[in-house]
Amino acid sequence: MSERQGILAAGNWIVDKLKVIDTYPQQDALANILTETTGNGGSPFNVLLDLARLGAPFPLAGIGLIGADDHGDWIHGQCDMHGVDRTRILRHATAPTSYTDVMTVQCTGRRTFFHQRGANAFLAPEHFSFIGSHAKIFHIGYLLLLDLLDQPDSEFGTAAARVLHTAREAGFKTSIDVVSEDSQRFADIVLPALRHTDYCIMNEFEIERTTGISIKPDGRISLPALESASRQLLASGVGEWVIVHFAEGACALGRDGKFHIQGSLHVSQERIIGTVGAGDAFAAGVLFGLHENLAIDTALLYGVATAASCLFGAGTSDGILPIKDCLRLADKLGTRDLTNEGNVTLL
């Protein structure tokens, strides 16, 4: 593993079309678009651009399926601009590049999403080639939002689990992320992947749906519940780390049985410009630390510091700073003490 360098990220490649509107209309009524911008979306797109902005000193590459259209050209351009190898980002002949119309009401900040699944829905195991890649970590997301990869597989449970198995056989450390879908599909789709996963990254909602353990039994984050749920995922086959992020911080549980916690940065509500992409920013920071063989406590700090910087930008990756500046931000703002946090319980 010491000879391998870089992160190869696969999954949903999405163009976010961010529109600020004056009001959210009733059906058949009209609203005015005040401003509009284009941004990156989807786990691999976000994580790789975040890593580039962090100044990751290792190669970055993507795997995915996009359309033969203007949005696909834009994704290629963004990869080129940020030094991401797009050799394995293939183009579907007829399906459009996946995109999301994000409608934000100016006076409230509330957002509504209209998603075109597009070419991502056709991403299948045959689109994954690991030949010639010497990357250290293979990251895939989002499970539950990749139609063909979420399908059952007679040998591995799901097609995504098959891909993860193949990646491990090719010499990668493997990492997964999940979409926060309001469904009961988590156990069927996520659990088969865990047996072929080294780093499982989730938020509190996703680990609750996967394990069935209530993470907020009294409306507050329960650290014992998070630890119990993390142990359940380790028992389900995660190879090295179960890592969970939530608004107040993050935690990690490894094979040594030690439970690590890290508070998020103190960012006042009035300074937050946008929260979109914060979860992927956290994943990028953690993967940066893991790639560099840093202690898990340092990797968690990288994660919460990167996520905090994301809050200062309107788009998914706009606020991401070089990692040294993220850590300076952590020093300046300070981090929450989860043992003395009103929204977290130790009971």
Description:
By secondary structure, this protein is an alpha/beta fold. It has a single domain, classed as Ribokinase (UDP-N-acetylmuramoyl-L-alanine:D-glutamate ligase). Helices cover 31% and strands 27% of the residues. The chain is built from 9 helices and 17 strands. A 9-stranded mixed sheet has the order 5-4-1-8-11-12-14-15-16, sandwiched between helices. The chain has a 4-stranded mixed sheet with strand order 3-2-6-7. A two-stranded antiparallel sheet has the order 9-10. β14 and β15 form a beta hairpin. α5 crosses α6. The radius of gyration is 19 Å and the shape is globular. The termini are far apart. The model has no long low-confidence stretch (mean pLDDT 95).
Q: How would the blueprint of this fold be written?
A:
Blueprint lengths: L6 E5 L2 E8 L11 E9 L1 H12 L5 E8 L2 H13 L1 E9 L6 E7 L5 E6 L20 E7 L8 E2 L3 E2 H11 L3 E6 L7 H9 L4 E5 H8 L9 E2 H13 L5 E6 L2 E6 L4 E5 L14 H14 L4 H15 L12 H11 L10 E2 L2
Parallel strand pairs: 1-4, 1-8, 2-6, 4-5, 8-11, 11-12, 12-14, 13-17
Antiparallel strand pairs: 2-3, 6-7, 9-10, 14-15, 15-16
Helix pairs in contact: 1-2, 1-7, 4-5, 5-6, 7-8, 8-9
Rg from alpha-carbon coordinates: 19 Å
Biggest beta sheet summary: 9 strands, mixed
Identify the CATH class. Alpha Beta
CATH topology (level 3) name: UDP-N-acetylmuramoyl-L-alanine:D-glutamate ligase
Number of domains: 1
Shape field? globular
State the distance separating the first and last CA atoms.
40 Å
Task: Give, in order, the helices and strands.
Answer: EEEHEHEEEEEEHEHEHEHEEEHHHE
- What share of the residues lie within helices? 25-40%
CATH architecture: 3-Layer(aba) Sandwich
Q: Uncertain segments of ≥5 residues (pLDDT<50)?
A: none
Q: How much of the sequence is in beta strands? A: 25-35%
Oligomer class? single chain
Spatial strand sequence of the major β-sheet? 5-4-1-8-11-12-14-15-16
Number of extended strands = 17
How large is the count of helical segments? 9
Instruction: Provide the CATH superfamily.
Output: Ribokinase
Mean pLDDT: 95
Q: Which class do the helix and strand fractions yield?
A: alpha/beta
